[in-house]
Amino acid sequence: MAKMWQGVTDGVTSKIADDFNSSISFDSRMFREDIAGSVAHAKMLAKQGIISDSEKDSIVTGLVGILEDLESGALRIDLSCEDIHMFVEQVLTERIGDPGRRLHTARSRNDQVALDLRLYLRRETGEIIVLIKSAVEAVAKKAEEYKTAVMPGYTHLQRAQPILFSHQLLAYCMMLLRDIDRLEDCRERMNRSPIGSCALAGTTYNTDRRFEAELLGFSGICHNSIDGVSDRDFAAELISSLSIMMMHLSRFCEELILWSSWEFKFITLSDGYTTGSSIMPQKKNPDMAELIRGKTGRVYGDLMSLLTALKGLPLAYNKDMQEDKEPVFDAVDTAKACLGVFIPMISEMRANPENMLKAAQTGFINATDLADYLVRKGMPFRSAYKIAGQAVAKCGEKGLVLETLPLEDYKTLSELFDEDLYKDIDLMNCVEKRISEGGTSPESVGAQLNYIKSLLNKPTGGSR
Q1: Residue 6: inside a domain, yes or no?
Q2: Which residues are catalytic?
Q3: In this structure, are 151 and 279 located in the same domain?
Q4: Is 402 within 8 Å of 368 (Cβ atoms)?
Q5: Structural domain contains residue 131
Q6: Residue 313 gets which letter from DSSP?
Q7: Phi-psi region of 202 (alpha: psi -120 to 50; beta: other; left: phi over 0)
Q8: pLDDT digits (tens, 9 = 90+) for 312-356
Q9: pLDDT tens across 92-144, in order?
Q10: CB-based burial of residue 344 (10 Å sphere; 0-12 exposed, 13-18 middle, 19+ buried)?
Q11: Which of 54, 156, 348, 438 could form a disulfide with 270, with the two C-beta atoms 3.0–4.6 Å apart?
Q12: Range of the domain at 37
């Protein structure tokens, strides 16, 4: 088949070269964006008198028909075409004749593919933002459900201080909210129209790039035509933002994996999001959480793949840039798939507050509160810190915890100890005393929940 770009060459390439050069196997997913961009381009050409209104109407009607046939299945994408742009133009020309040949006036595949990719990723970014919001809502709802459950807080994976389980969950909400911010910022920078940049230098036709951009819902245009066709910052930035989001999901899933083990038993994941063992009937494996953790590395790889492809390219367009789509599509697909599993997995998760409390009681995590008790009695903190450590050692010798160590044992360490110390080191009281803003007290957790709800209720730009 002769190529539509046949000119100085005879348009005949080997089958091996055709297969190697083709991108339609993966860029065909942008057929809606390609058709929408072509409809807007035809309208702009007619507005500027570059084509007639009747030609524009014929083109638009033909393009709408192609879209309907692709979506209904009446038309199948021909994978022998080089890319989705050539396929749409070829089918259009077959259906309407010469007006179809006029559509490519004042544009190039270079700005056309840049347009399609921005339109596609803008929509996908909006969909991912909606999914992350649903994830935040699921986690926040679980925090509400277990608002007063006490658990050990950890540093270095060692029991450190008592916290509320809800406080730990809300830490992940804050991370995911930042992911939404990053993606919204990324989408705004993405939302500039490159169409009209042509191959790299613009066009001799009197086009109206801003009109075409407005038709497509862009907030502006790319101001430099060379940058318009060669910029893929928006794709790299999107994968970077998704990599950070995946890192957050992975950290959360790591905790779910730990918490659901027999060693912790803080939570139980539902049967719908775990699997069994082929030979060990007692096993309940957190495979979905593990897969999310594993797929994080895949998204990181997508980012490195794109950055490496771009790092040595001279301006403007180079065929290397065809390698932008597979990594960014894969990152988008992977992120959406992980969020799609993560949301119901969290929604169906059950916590075991009794086990959390038991772990908190046996970890001496109220030792700091014991030291603070002595500080309030007038002892310097470093001296109080030492005595609290000695009290922990006594508990270790006697097989007790700080709450059950007799007062006479405390008195051997300091005469400042009195009966009121037991109230001070009560775990729930330890939590309630963390009154600093952002801390683990029930009041603070309630304020955090209200903050999260207020952000979730804020309207965003939408996915257009």
Answers
A1: no
A2: 156, 277
A3: yes
A4: no
A5: yes
A6: P
A7: left
A8: 999 999 999 999 999 999 999 999 999 999 999 999 999 999 999
A9: 999 999 999 999 999 999 999 999 999 999 999 999 999 999 999 999 999 99
A10: middle
A11: 348
A12: 15-105
